[in-house]
Structures
1.
Amino acid sequence: MEDPSSKEDNPGVLEVLEALKQASHELQAHPTRNPAHSDSPAIKALLDLETESDSILSKDPHLSTLSRYLADLKSLVETLEKTRGHGLRSFLTRRVSTHSISRVAGSIESEIQAWMDRESIESLLKGLKEPWKDEDVLVRLLTQFEDRVSQGFDRELQNLVLKSKAFSVLQMVLCDPNCPNRIRENAAFVVAALIRFNKDVFVGQVNMGDTIHALLEMKSTHSLKVLCELITFTKSPFVDEILCNGEIPKILTLLESKDLDMKVVAFDCILEIGYFGRKEAVEALLKGGLTKKLVELQRSEFGGDLIEMGKFDDENQETEGKKREKRENKFLKNHPFASCVARFAVQLEVGEGLRQREKRAFKQGILEKVKEASVNDAEAATIIAEVLWGSSP
């Protein structure tokens, strides 16, 4: 597959636009360098490129506005050059021209970015709709688009995404079992990035059921991390959909994976479900044997007890608390399931999905299951103490 990001008709257009964008950015970023003179490096670069790019820009109707801005810039600089006197009128004219130059430079940068975004989306969608012959090219295009979206909200970019129906195409690829997993995973990353970009707009476009099934079907740490992120952003409705689709047992099964990273991400996902899930979702976790699985993980070489570090001792000073937190974080890197029973109980306690009486009932149920799952009284006593002290009464 040929790289769809290349411009066959004019391979130099992207290089010219990149240079124009950089010069425009410099003109805005360093106003204290007195850029509003034709001998300013940024001004000189823009004017040189304006002459060089004239034939290139004229071939693309989307760049006609950019051509006008470059012509306006040239006119403003010429006006500025004619007003180098020392009178008040010259001073005011220079101030107005300097402000106008900065404003036009901003418009130039915005126009170039809009063109690049349009080309990027068109190339990406073209590649995703064709047979997947070159995974590397598509993964690179998806990664580039994810990076662009992750730069922060941009209304023009949002309009381009909505107009092109890119979100629907990305979801279609994510949910296509015939598509290579690398492409599906990266499509999932972009879906998550778009939700971060503007949750109010893109959450409503998520086909929850199919997306959840696809992410769990891939059985990769990457896809499961996206699932965690989607729970965080869409909260209880997404957890409800996980429950209705019967996916909770699949997530619980991942806690038994031989891949440590997979087990860690599965636990993170369960913590998110515990925080946002309603009564039925939490019941499904506990009926699926979650407490026993967590006790076993806490007993493993990757578990341990944070209680010994004074995690739940309210009498420590604040400075001591910060030192303790650093020790705990260091410990958790090598022991990701340390005090995992209490950590889950805390999520239920401070979470958004349960009523107070439900929280109390689940807490009591966890304590009873801990006694059943523990190998001896000492283990049970330690875990119970963590659960009791780790969450508020």
2.
Amino acid sequence: MEKINFVKDGVLRLPPGFRFHPTDEELVVQYLKRKVHSFPLPASIIPEVDVCKHDPWELPGDCVQERFFFSTKEVKYPNGNRSNRATLSGYWKATGLDKQIVTLKNNQVVGMKKTLVFYRGKPPNGSRTDWIMHEYRLATPQPKNPTQGMENWVICRIFLKKRGNNVNKIDEETIAIVSDHKPVESNPVFYDFMAASKKGTDLNLKPVSSSSGSSGITDDACSCNEHEENSSNLDDVSNLRKI
């Protein structure tokens, strides 16, 4: 049975409802390893493109979605191992450490993944962009002699980093956490004096707890009432003496 080629004019074209989301292990074992050893691929789904000959936004395919390409590594110096990753408008710069790709079955290291970021301009004064590339290579060094039938292939996964509501959400959560730990004394307290005057209450009076069985009248108010009663009794006594 003849295999269907899903790549047309360097662009991946899948039927409706189909998606290509391989794992790191599948990319290395099922595609890259077979490509290096010239074995039949599971499907003709990854195009061959020299990634460093194009800027990331000019590569074939939809820029919004992640794209996969077979590419060959170009050595920067004849006697060195550094790759030439310069493009027309900038360059790809490696960041972080390479990650090992291991199989789930026996934890065997089958490949390595390098993360790169695209910079506009020329090094070392380039400006960082949101274009990211994951470069997959085999764990065992590939022979440099092309007569052995093995080329220095890699798989490049290129996508545009999304910046959205996650940053704003984190900022809002951080503000909420910080506000919860503010001291109580720093928060101003406002009293509605107009409402208090209408009700005839005094804000300076201390409320009495309901457990004491009182009617809500303060001790200061009771002392004022006793003082008024004593003064009225004295007035009555003075009136009797005048009579």
3.
Amino acid sequence: MPHILIVEDEAAIADTLVYALQAEGFATTWLSLAGEALERVRQAPFDLLILDVGLPDISGFEACRQLRRFSEVPVIFLTARDAEVDRVVGLEIGADDYVVKPFSPREVAARAKAILRRLAPRELSPREASGIDAPANAAFQVDLERHRIHYRGQLLALTRHEFRLLQTLLGQPQRVFARERLLDALGVAADAGYERTVDSHIKSLRAKLRQVDPAAEPIQTHRGLGYSYDPER
């Protein structure tokens, strides 16, 4: 049974979320302070966080920044703000989705189910099950079991989103992936309007690859289309 931590200081909102999530088969824990939630995540695993942006101790955005220093647990933000910049910032700092108040608790439950379904481990092919999904002489070596990628023999320090993006690109060299398809790889609904966050993650990925090989440009931009991996670059 997936366990969801709800961090919301308004009891009425939290109660409706607890009811809707438990009706869908989730276990829930409710806390009203971000600091307490961060400590709880350090102590016990959760499958998903539903995190209000406007909390009384620290903001949800700051809480997510601190969370990402030690955990890659998926996060859905709850907020009364609907500006595009807030949605983009939320996703860039590591959230998986963004729900604007007032909202339907059933919609939040559906989004939680969709995120957990996308992030669920898939059945590995015999080749992937061996642990390394790349030829020994390739520039990239993907360790699916440990969620690690080596580039030219060096381990990359990747976030969960960066790992999934790079894994998707490496899986089909030369294929141009639209931003919507890459969002799907991150577990974000393609219709959520968050295409710009893909650009931010790609920029971060490129910076980490240049630290290993400043002259190489394996991730190619196709204006108006998306991104691809070119093993020759």
4.
Amino acid sequence: MATLAELVATLETAYPPRLAEPWDSVGLVCGDPAETVRRVLFAVDVTAGVVDEAVRWGAQAVVAHHPLLLRGVDSVSADRPKGALIHRLIRSGCALFTAHTNADSADPGVSDALAEALGLTVTGPLDPKYVPAVDKWTVQVPPEHAAAVLAALFAAGAGGAGDYREAAWRVTGTGQFRPLDGANPALGTVGELARVAEERLEVVAAPGSRAAVLAALRTAHPYEEPAYHVTERAALTGNQGLGRIGTLAAPLTLREFTARAAAALPETAWGVRAAGEPDRVLRTVAVCGGAGDSLLDTAARRGVDAYLTADLRHHPADEHLRRSGPALIDAAHWATEFPWCAQAAAVAAAGLPELETRVSTVRTDPWTVGCGG
């Protein structure tokens, strides 16, 4: 039987908390990590209807995209709307876990699920996250001192690579040097060329730890002047980041693609609307699940034919089109993120096959009436 801690670990492997925006609130909201979990319900929002469904079904955990407690709170008393939900979840033995902007930027993440629903082949992120720069330290040291120097470097923060620690590369070679007058060499004689066996050590470290790593190196190294070199690797882009760019298997007009989106996404009162020439031919489409008007300029720079997202505002959209940017498709916020629920459920089931998972049938889109045409 799986535990809540195992469920959290599985989900945080797929949606690493480090990818969350600084203002966000993600992770375990309530629940005992040691408790067992058999049934998990997945939803975009935590509403009274979703909690009712979870309790009726006998779920031990709800996994939501939108945080219930995003902004700072000083009370979760049961006489407040959000507090009442927290109290009911706890009384029912049901935990709550949130994956928000970390799920937006993960690979795969929210926008991958959206792109798949729309029949797009993803080629990369719309707004990629950069892999941080990292230092590579190269150090020459006598073999008998290599272990002590490595231990000091590790203690100072070097040797970390992703989920690994104490990572290093070692090779034995021959070093040479000639001590000059005034030197006090640990090996060799002043004025004479010395050739000694040395190990070459290579470790990586964050640029911010340079002072600590250098101090540790100088303390642990037996040489009067340690031989070392530091190289900074440039920051690189990866497959993580907000939004996705995708290609269509065959060109479609804006009108045709908008109809496809309306058919592929869950129906809402908001519907799906487009801005641009209806017969414009589309081959590449950028998507961003949720509110994505902050990436309008990014979509324009990436040269896509159209950009589908949610919550587009009148003036930014109008100005974007006046600059001859991509055609715009605006869908309901909830609808663009709903495909992620099935993705997250599949992640949990793959990591913990004993779980029973379900995507909530409660439509949490807040809009209930749509008129006009």
